[in-house]
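Appendix B, Record 12. Input sequence as logged:
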Amino acid sequence: MEIKIVRKIFTVYGVHGTLYVNDTKECDTLEHPSRHLRTGSYRLMLKMVPKLSDQELVVKGCAMKLVVKGSAFIQPGNGPFTLKNGSIIVGKPIVADNIIVTGLLSKSQETYNLLYDKVIECMENGEEIKVEITTEEKQKEKQKEEQNEEQKDEDVEDENVVEMIREGEKGEVR
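Logged structural output:
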């Protein structure tokens, strides 16, 4: 499974992004405006931590947390200012007058539970789960590079076809 977080809006109230599971939009994300993880690739793991609240998924008195790096978790929550160590909140955006309200997400626990279930199912099937964190700009640059590579490959194929036609014409003349 591949989880991709694309950061889109950077404000003093938080970093808003979109979380994709295998290239399908799953939910929105919210991170602390300055204490977020660097862009890059990470491996998602499951970790037992002491129970912090009744809202967490609990196994044997401990919460099962989705760990991105060290103690940076993907977790439910409302706003980013209590987040520590680069943790990421998942949820649905709050929209007013067609504008995203920055610094808040709604339906976070419900969203987290759905994501958690997908992750657990993949882990039970022995799949490794990768998390890639990027920005919208980097995502666009990567897509442009991929398009350029595809165009180069097509150009080489076209040149090969033209060369084959030329060789064929030369063969017919002989």
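The longest strand covers residues 2-11.
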